[in-house]
UniProtKB/TrEMBL annotation, chain A:
This is Amino acid/amide ABC transporter membrane protein 2 (HAAT family). Its main location: membrane. The chain crosses the membrane at residues 45-63, 94-116, 123-144, 197-217, 244-264, 284-309, 350-371. GO terms for cellular component: plasma membrane. It is found in: Cell membrane. PANTHER family: ABC TRANSPORTER ATP-BINDING PROTEIN, HIGH-AFFINITY BRANCHED-CHAIN AMINO ACID TRANSPORT SYSTEM PERMEASE. It is a multi-pass membrane protein. Residues 383-396 have a biased composition (Basic and acidic residues). Residues 383-404 are annotated as: Disordered. Pfam families: BPD_transp_2. Keywords: Cell membrane, Membrane, Transmembrane, Transmembrane helix.
TrEMBL record, chain B:
Keywords: Amino-acid transport, Signal, Transport. PANTHER family: LEUCINE-SPECIFIC-BINDING PROTEIN, PERIPLASMIC BINDING PROTEIN OF ABC TRANSPORTER FOR NATURAL AMINO ACIDS. Belongs to the leucine-binding protein family. This is Amino acid/amide ABC transporter substrate-binding protein (HAAT family). Residues 43-403 form the Leucine-binding protein domain. It comes from Rhodovulum euryhalinum. Pfam families: Peripla_BP_6. SUPFAM superfamilies: Periplasmic binding protein-like I (SSF53822).
Length: 404, 449
């Protein structure tokens, strides 16, 4: 279906199901239990999962396929956000014009930056993109204050033109009247599920983005990109000019980033300069590597993982720790709290850092490799025939499925 | 390569399934509530959104301490702190409207995005009725906008930019802290007395919104004295090395350097200016002087000896001798073994003010609370008689002019109070051009219903 083979179709359907069921899957604990702290099914975080998923999927088209490590993708994220907020200010709160324009503008941006940066490869390329992103950040932070409103961030004021704004138009981002912020809460025997319009909008776009990326992975174009990653010099010797391909990949991933930035502003009508800072660029690199660069699902998993840590672990404070260990004698309780304290609350970076190290050392293929190992463990148990089940005659293996 | 088998039936089927999936959530009805996060149980939750990581983490930590203390006092634990001296007596230490106060915390990271994400998670996940704290104007403006949209009350923490209650003012947002204009207005008479009316000032300004408003305010008040402004140079935030900015100061013929910096930037620029020997120089026949418009205890600590004799302003200081300050310093000191900073004071006071407004309004509805806070006059909170002005939700109270102490005895009294500038002197019209002019408006109250 959809121009995919059976395996990919099944994979896509699983992704669609997971995405649509996210509000339920992320609320595994009832509200009253003490584990409700770990529930992540609230609109803002779910939106972030979908949006940063898109961001990472796009980044992976460049990094995973061509091997070009861009440290400047946050610039496109910021450009997308500013575009959408400006559309709010000039036209109305309808998110559609802004989103379309954010993709176009970030594509133009990516074309310029890519055209210059792609003259070099390897570390020089990374440094060039980083320089461009930091330049954009500093411009947005102070120099271009009239356009970006500097440190405070661009937001909509009541005296903005908003020429398309009718008398009864919603006063927060909406898609033809469907207000992004609105959600439906369902209380089911202690479990509280929040179905948010904004999340479902992001989710549908994320599925589309995922589908497009799947098609790119499977296309001759994708094959060409992988060839560039494997050995660009050899490609050049065969008389093939690889730069148009890398530039196309760069622009496509820039468009993904612009779309993600636009969606951030579509969910929350504010664009801040920090979105362009190098830490934001680094974050998407982390997401992709953590999840598994070059795989389809990996970056999405990585994005979810990092956003979960950032939003859930950072909120565990000493008070909550004490309530967890309250059943223990005082001395042990305090000891345990002191032990856990550096890793939660403001120390969530530490937890993330340790997890990142563990993943890089033990699972170089990212979280996806972890899942593969687990599934292989189960699969190999089923085929227990003979002492040497691991192919004693060394038959040639087919290339691993890239979606796995 | 592509094997497209897109059939009409296939498309229709998929469309129908997707449509059904999307329509599914809408058949449920939402839970009815009169306003956002109406507390229905026996508890009410506050959200304390402070920087726990990043450049202002220390400040955030102190705010958090004060807020925890405020919650204890509201719930009747501890010695009650400022509740004993607060002029309004509706709070009796049994929580608010019979509900016990709980709190959740978030990390703003001093970034607008992260702060909004933290605030959103507190609103959507933890059901907070108000958000308090923060240590940057950019963050304050961003979170204030969010709270306005979400329909809860925002009590700004340390935010000194004119914009917070100027062009970015919001009906659901309140600021207890003073602002850049007030700093300028309070400092000017002291500077006049100390340095005379014939001075040439050179500004180094942090290159972002707060820096601009701070510089604008202090330039206006010093020029009103008759001072000349030689130059205003914007410096990047977090520059670390300011030597290239300080070297041209002496050649410019200026005899006062005004550092519109905050936090680590101020510590670095002041230290370097002193190391360059600026304060030992004679220019135009006068002693060269340095002024730092906005002080905080942590900055003063960081700058060490360099701060001696340097003038600046503060919202509040623990060395004041009124009963409210004494009660607060006592309970804070007993609990944490150190005096509170002025941002801690603001956050503490705002928690109590919010609680009191709820108690007086008899409801947690943000519109009722906002109404109770607007025009509210109170005393006993360490700043003397104070008013929450209804037009822009800015608190008006006395402002402290501080000076780096010549002989500090501990690391906590490196600043000394020079003058308590009376409130009348720092007041301004709500439609002052520095505060967005006539166009700025609070907008409508939003309770999220």
């Amino acid at each position: 279906m959809f121009g995919l083979n059976a395996k990919d179709t099944r994979f896509l359907l699983i992704v669609v199901f997971l995405t649509l069921a996210t509000p339920i899957l992320l609320q595994p604990f009832p509200e009253s239990s003490s584990l409700a702290q770990f529930n992540a099914g609230y609109p803002d975080l779910m939106q972030k999962f979908a949006i940063f998923g898109i961001f990472a999927i796009g980044f992976n088209i460049l990094f995973g396929l061509t091997g070009y490590l861009s440290f400047g993708h946050a610039a496109f994220l910021g450009v997308g956000s500013y575009t959408v907020v400006w559309m709010y200010k000039l036209l109305s709160y309808n998110i559609l014009p802004g989103l379309v324009l954010s993709i176009i503008i970030s594509a133009l941006f990516a074309l310029v930056i890519g055209f210059i940066s792609l003259r070099r490869s390897g570390i020089y390329f990374s440094i060039l993109t980083l320089a461009f992103a930091q330049m954009s950040y500093n411009l947005a932070y102070s120099v271009l204050t009239p356009i970006t409103n500097g440190e405070t961030g661009l937001q909509v004021y009541t005296n903005d033109p908003q020429v398309l704004m009718g008398a009864n138009s919603p006063t927060s981002p909406h898609l033809f009247g469907l207000v992004m912020r609105e959600s439906v809460q369902v209380d089911m025997g202690g479990w509280l599920f929040t179905f948010n319009i904004g999340y479902y909008f992001c989710a549908i776009i994320a599925i589309l983005a995922f589908y497009i990326s799947l098609r790119i992975f499977r296309s001759p174009f994708g094959m060409m990109l992988r060839a560039i990653k494997t050995n660009q010099t050899r490609m050049n010797y065969t008389g093939l000019n690889s730069r148009p391909y890398t530039l196309a990949a760069f622009v496509i991933s820039g468009m993904y980033a612009g779309l993600a930035g636009g969606l951030l502003a579509a969910m929350d009508p504010l664009a801040g300069a920090e979105r362009m800072q190098w830490t934001a660029s680094g974050e998407v690199v982390l997401m992709t590597i953590l999840g598994g660069a070059g795989t389809l699902m990996g970056p999405v998993l990585g994005a979810g993982f990092i956003k979960y840590c950032e939003n859930i672990f950072s909120k565990i404070n000493d008070g909550i720790l004490h309530s967890w260990f309250a059943f223990l004698p005082d001395g042990i309780e305090n000891f345990l709290v002191t032990l856990v304290h550096p890793f939660v609350g403001k120390g969530w970076h530490l937890t993330l850092g340790i997890l990142f190290m563990l993943v890089v050392i033990f699972l170089p293929g990212g979280l996806v490799e972890g899942f593969q190992r687990i599934s292989r463990l189960f699969r190999s148990k089923r085929v227990k025939d003979g002492p040497r089940r691991k192919d004693p005659e060394h038959h040639p293996k087919s290339a691993p499925h890239v979606a796995e | 390569m592509t094997n497209s088998n897109l059939t009409r039936r296939g498309v229709l089927k998929t469309g129908a399934v997707t449509g059904a999936g999307l329509a599914l959530p809408t058949i449920f009805t939402s839970r009815a509530s009169a306003f956002t996060n109406e507390p229905t149980g026996s508890t009410v939750t506050f959200g304390f959104n402070v920087p726990q990581t990043g450049p202002y983490a220390e400040e955030g930590l102190d705010e958090l301490r004060a807020q925890e203390l405020a919650v204890e006092h509201l719930n009747g634990m501890g010695d009650g702190g400022m509740l004993q001296t607060f002029s309004s007596k509706t709070l009796d230490g049994t929580g608010i409207l019979g509900k016990k106060v709980q709190f959740v915390t978030g990390d703003t990271q001093t970034k607008s995005d992260a702060a909004r994400a933290a605030a959103k998670s507190m609103i959507e996940k933890d059901g907070v009725v108000m958000i308090n704290g923060g240590s940057s104007s950019g963050v304050a403006v961003a979170v204030q906008g969010l709270c306005q949209e979400a329909g809860i009350i925002f009590m700004a923490g340390l935010t000194h930019s004119n914009d917070t209650t100027g062009k970015d003012r919001k009906k659901n947002g309140f600021r207890h802290f003073f602002n850049a204009y007030m700093s300028g207005a309070a400092l000017a008479p002291v500077l006049e007395k100390a340095y005379g009316t014939d001075r040439r000032a050179y500004h180094l300004t942090a290159d972002y919104t707060w820096g601009y408003t701070q510089q604008e305010s202090i330039q206006a008040s010093t020029e009103a004295l008759g001072w000349q402004t030689v130059n205003n140079v914007l410096t990047p935030v977090g520059a670390g090395d300011f030597s290239s900015y300080i070297t041209p100061v002496l050649q410019s013929g200026a005899d006062v350097l005004i550092l519109n910096h905050y936090g680590g930037d101020m510590v670095n620029s002041l230290t370097q200016a002193v190391q360059f020997g600026l304060r030992d120089k004679q220019v135009n026949g006068k002693q060269f002087e340095i002024v730092v418009p906005l002080y905080s205890e942590l900055m003063a600590e960081g700058a060490g000896d360099n701060i001696k004799g340097v003038y600046g302003s503060m919202n509040w200081n623990w060395q004041l001798q009124d009963p409210g300050t004494k009660a607060f310093v006592k309970s804070f000191g007993e609990r944490y073994g150190r005096p509170p900073s002025n941002s801690a004071h603001t956050c503490y006071v705002q928690t109590l003010l919010y609680a009191d407004a709820v108690a007086r309004a008899g409801s947690f509805n943000p519109c009722a609370v906002a109404e109770a806070l607007e025009g509210f006059e109170f005393d006993g909170m360490g700043n003397g008689p104070t008013t929450y002005r209804a037009e822009d939700h800015q608190c008006f109270k006395d402002v402290l002019v501080m000076k780096g102490a010549e002989n500090p005895t501990t690391k906590f009294d490196v600043l000394e109070v020079v003058e308590v500038t009376p409130r009348a002197q720092v007041e301004y019209a709500p439609d002052h051009p520095m505060f967005g002019g006539a166009e700025a408006s609070l907008g409508e109250c939003n309770d999220g219903a």
